[in-house]
Amino acid sequence: MVPPIVMTIPEIRAVTDAVRQQGQTIGFVPTMGALHEGHASLIRAARAASDYVVVSIFVNPTQFGPHEDYAKYPRTLEADQLVCAQAGADVIFAPRVEDMYPANSFSYVEVAKLGDHLCGRSRPGHFRGVCTVVMKLFNIIRPDVAYFGAKDYQQARIITQMVRDLNVPVRIAIEPTVREADGLALSSRNRYLSPAERAVAPRIQQALQTIAQRVAAGEVDTARLESALEAELMAIPGTRVDYAKIVDAEFLQPLTRIDRPAVIAVAVFLGTTRLIDNLLIGEPVGR
Ligand code: PAF
After folding, report:
1. From atom 1 of ligand 1, which residue's Cα is the shortest distance away?
2. Which domain holds residue 248?
3. What is the pTM for the complete model shown?
4. CA of residue 197 to ligand 1 center, whole Å
5. Is 30 in the pocket of ligand 1 (CB under 6 A)?
6. Which end of the chain is less congested by CB atoms within 10 angstroms, N or C?
7. Out of 39, 67, 117, 126, which one is annotated catalytic?
8. What is the CATH number of the domain that holds 253?
9. Residues 151, 176: contact at Cβ < 8 Å?
10. Phi/psi zone of residue 277: left (φ > 0), alpha (ψ -120 to 50 degrees), beta?
11. Residue 154 covered by a domain
C-alpha cells in the first residue's frame, strides 16, 4: 500500500487518535526526507514492532545554521513515498513550515551539557532545533516508540535524555548505522559528493576502525588517539576536519583516558559536504 500523505496537524491527530482508540500501538520515524536505506531500516524496525507506523518528512528550518544547506537540502517527496511504501509505513506526515512554526512561536526545548561538544559546538543552535521539532512531533503524534539511527549518535543520546528529563511517554529505539558495501555510512548528504569525493569517503570509516584497533590493542590516551585520528582523516584528499574526538558514550564529555564506554566521533568536510560518523567502544550506555 502507498501510504497517504497528511499535511495538517488536526488531520494527523485524527488519524493517530483513531489508531490509539482501537488499542493499537504507534511506531514513529521522524525524518527530513531524502529517504535512503538507513531510513528504510528504521521504518522496517517500526513495522516489526508496532501496529501502526507513522513517518514524518519535514525539513526543519530551526536546526540549520544561517550558512548551512537548508535551501538546497534535497526534497524528494514522491520518491520518499515509495520508500515508505516498500518499508511498510502506514501514513506520512509532511507538514508545512508555517504550520509547525506559526508566527509568534517563542518556545524551544534545549538539553544542556550533551550538546556542548561535537556537532553542538560546530553547529550552534542545531540541537535546540532538533529537540524542539522532535518534541513537537511527539506531542502531535504521541507515538509509543520512536526510531533514530546510531549514525547521529549525539542526536540519539540527546533525544533519549530529553525524553527522560521531561517525562515524555515514548520509548526511544536506536537502530544500527546502515552502510554502503565499502563502509560509507548512508546519509541524505552523500548525494552531494562528486565521484572523486565519493571514492575517498569510505576512508572516514576506515580511520575510525584504525583508531578502534589501537584501543583494542591497549592504547587509552585520548590525546594521542585523537591526533592519530585527525592525521588519518587529513590524509584523505579534499578533506577538512571539523572535529575528531573521543568522548564518554553517556554524557559526551571529553575523556583523557578511555576508562569507560566511549564513542569515537568525527565530522569531516569533503569539499563542501559535511559528513559525520562514529564508532562505539564498549557497551551502549544511556539508552
Ligand atoms: O535526523 C534527522 O533527520 C532530523 O534531525 C530529525 C530527527 C528528523 C529532526 O528534524
Report:
1. 31
2. 188-279
3. 0.97
4. 24
5. yes
6. N
7. 39
8. 3.30.1300.10
9. no
10. beta
11. yes
